[in-house]
Amino acid sequence: MYNTKAYSAVSETSPLASTTIERREPTEHDVQLSILFCGVCHSDLHSVRNEWSSFTSTVYPIVPGHEIVGRVTKVGSAVTKYQPGDIAAVGCLVDSDGTCPQCKAGFEQFCLNQTLTYNSPDKHLGGVTKGGYSDSIVVDERFVLRVPTNLDLAGVAPLLCAGITTYSPMRHWGVTKGKKVGVVGLGGLGHMGVKFARAFGAQVVVFTTSPDKKEDALRLGADEVVVSRNADEMQKHAGSFDFILDTVSAKHDINAYLNLLRRDGNITLVGAPEKPLDVSAFSLIMGRRSLSGSNIGGIPETQEMLDFCGEHNITADVEVIPIQKVNEAYERLLKSDVKYRFCIDMASLKSE
Ligand code: NAP
Ligand code: ZN
């Protein structure tokens, strides 16, 4: 074991603060990374504040962070894909059983024995796993991703969660040229959703509660922007969408969006609000519409997404912050004041 610097919260009401944590020495299949950048996902905030306690309770102290890009510093004797000096990435998963039907199909995100990057039982050290708001991490090579060499690394980090979480359902539901696609909420996930829908050739409409994001939405690739609080603007799109991706982090009226789907249209929830959403049966029955959910993506698809981003020069729009500003960043997330992903420059942790 060795010690590494990190930021953790000790309770659901505590701010994140500097600490020291233990990491395992790399075993034969492990890759050790020196972390360069880590994105700030709204899921980090939900977890730190224990907002998902009805699904999974947070174990304190928590070290969040699952959008990790780093430089390989050490590899185990059986590692074949990475060597010291390589740039590599880690997302929301660091292990799974590898033997169940989900894992065999490349859907590690649905494995019942998965290990998340933070707040999952740690098979090696006991306690729970600790995430990317830290100087260094050790991960089984099966869960380490290759990073295209042409991309800005701060903008790559958010691809590991915001990127794959929006890419995967759009691929699954056949977002292509000729489809009319909505993206609800222009935050970290939403802005990646817009970029992917555009890259897949769809007609893209952004739904936002923030009128001042209109110009950005168009710049990011939207064909049209609807301020969702304006009922007339919403009504104009009734019954017209093939697919809508809902990335909203708080309770909101899902029926307003179900009613915008055409016959057999689908809305997929990736946003994970603390409180349940109310669904009207009629919004689904009328038009044989469907409502579904999606969880990040498996390792093969995450690599496919990163390679796609390399080919199409896609990265997240980031506001790079030192780790000392992370509590402020959380407050701004709650006000929908992020353009469009905070990304921590982990060099700032060295001065702690
Ligand atoms: P974010 O950057 O904070 O973006 C959320 C956006 O939702 C905001 O920018 C805002 O967009 C909109 N919004 C916020 N509060 C709202 C409200 N009360 N009513 C309507 N719209 C509101 O968050 P994120 O990192 O993109 O994450 C979004 C959600 O996805 C979170 O719940 C997160 O936990 C979840 N998530 C799920 C997965 C998965 O695998 N399913 C993966 C990652 C994250 P406008 O200003 O444009 O309205
Ligand atoms: Zn995330």
Automatic annotation (TrEMBL):
Gene Ontology MF annotations: alcohol dehydrogenase (NADP+) activity; zinc ion binding
Required cofactor names: Zn(2+)
Database matches in SMART domains: PKS_ER
Pfam families named among the record's database cross-references: ADH_N, ADH_zinc_N
Alphabetized UniProt keyword annotations: Metal-binding, Oxidoreductase, Plasmid, Zinc
InterPro entries listed in its UniProt record: ADH-like_C, ADH-like_N, ADH_Zn_CS, CAD-like, D-isomer_DH_CS1, ER, GroES-like_sf, NAD(P)-bd_dom_sf
Residue ranges constituting the Enoyl reductase (ER) domain according to the UniProt record: 9-338
Entries under Gene3D superfamilies matching the protein: Medium-chain alcohol dehydrogenases, catalytic domain, NAD(P)-binding Rossmann-like Domain
Similarity field: Belongs to the zinc-containing alcohol dehydrogenase family.
Name of protein: Zn-dependent alcohol dehydrogenase
Originating organism: Cylindrospermum stagnale PCC 7417
